[in-house]
Amino acid sequence: MRYHAAKPQWTGRRLNRDLFNALGVLVLPLSHIISDADLHKLAMHGIELTEYDLDPLSEEKAALRELEASVSTLRHIFQGIRHSGHIPIADIQNEIMPVMTRSMESVQVFPLLLSMRAKDDYTYRHNIAVGALSSMLGRWMGLPPGELAILSIGAVLHDVGKMAIPEHILNKNGRLTDEEYETMKLHTLYGYDMIKQCADLHHRSALIALQHHEREDGSGYPHRLSSERIDYLSKIVAVSDVFHALTSDRVYRKASPFYEILRLMFTGSLGNFDQSILLTFTRRLMNSLIGCEVELTDGTVGQVVLIPPSDPTRPLIRQGERYIDLSKEIHLQMEQIVG
């Protein structure tokens, strides 16, 4: 079975020509920005938009829209997996993985983070986001193409075992009980078994599903493995998985700012991650803030001008002629990005 992405998103796009109906009446003018109401209006006049009617998207915007559409595609694929217990690997490779590749080549990290913050369909959006983030992180870590391909598909499928978890637990609008949490943790084992059955997938992709909740100090699950026994690709996905989960809104809690989550991860408050992977991830994301204005916890506003390599979560801030080094002013930290 083939799954197809949702219809292209026209809202927010600008017309590059006047649109007339069959009677020659102007319906929408050149340079008009399309809204949802406009789509209904055009349908009433029997006008169907095409890419040729609209200003072209930048490569980055086009890739972000593909990522957004892939959430719906993955939802259909995963729902099929829930019923069959088998992964349609050809559909994943044909419909999802090319989008991952284009996102790596075209999207900067900050637009990706903003685009992929979970708004709905958390289970499916999370897998797409972790796939994209892990692919970026794998490239930053210098993985060769073969390993990068194994990482990318393993990251997209890292939570596929949740399709074997009862829906009343998976979709519960609140925190899980201890018993439900123990059931939820089984998704790592289920995912490993599902991926292992796919002859075309590398064994390390299955290990990602199994090990992405393991931690360097042996405090993770399902097997409480310590550093040297955890596959390197699983360590990359572990960082991306926790980061996206905690920077996304859930029914039972609001998302935390990404720089706050980075600080907590970097200081070990959210578990013990591979330090070289985490340092690279933190530096790259914090470097995306250079030039941005941020509000500090004392209410003052300044511009991020330098990310120190030793602790990238505490940058140098400029306020007019004054500089604040957050690595030394430990009573201060970033509160929010202005704008």
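Next protein, fold it too.
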Amino acid sequence: MFVINFAGKGLNMQIRSLVLSVSLFSALISCTALATGQDNARVPLDRLQALSNGQPVTPLPPSFSAQATKGIANDQLAMYLAGVIDSGEGQHWCVAASGLPPHDVNQQLLAELQRDLQQKKVAANANSAVQLASKLKVLFPCK
């Protein structure tokens, strides 16, 4: 970690750097922590929903602010969604061709999943990757 000191702002930059480092590390190790139940490769929709509500999958020290906790949950969610999107990009769906920023794509996907959960078209314990893949094929078909 490096510290840049601009007229007394070194401590502020050091804290930001620490929070960023913890966020990235936490997001990286959360890949295994995301799964629940017997099948470690499966992430149920309710776990994905908890992430979107700002509840990270990795335990955080109580000294973390609510804003930092929510930021880590958002990072974990974005990384999971990016992994699912990358798994079939250009073969089964073409998100990149849409020109939408990743945040907008993620919001569309989560809104569709939330709608399916509310309409009981899918169970809360359904495999989120499978559900996301079906939404990606419909929302971002390759032409």
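About the second fold: The chain is about 60% helix and 0% strand.
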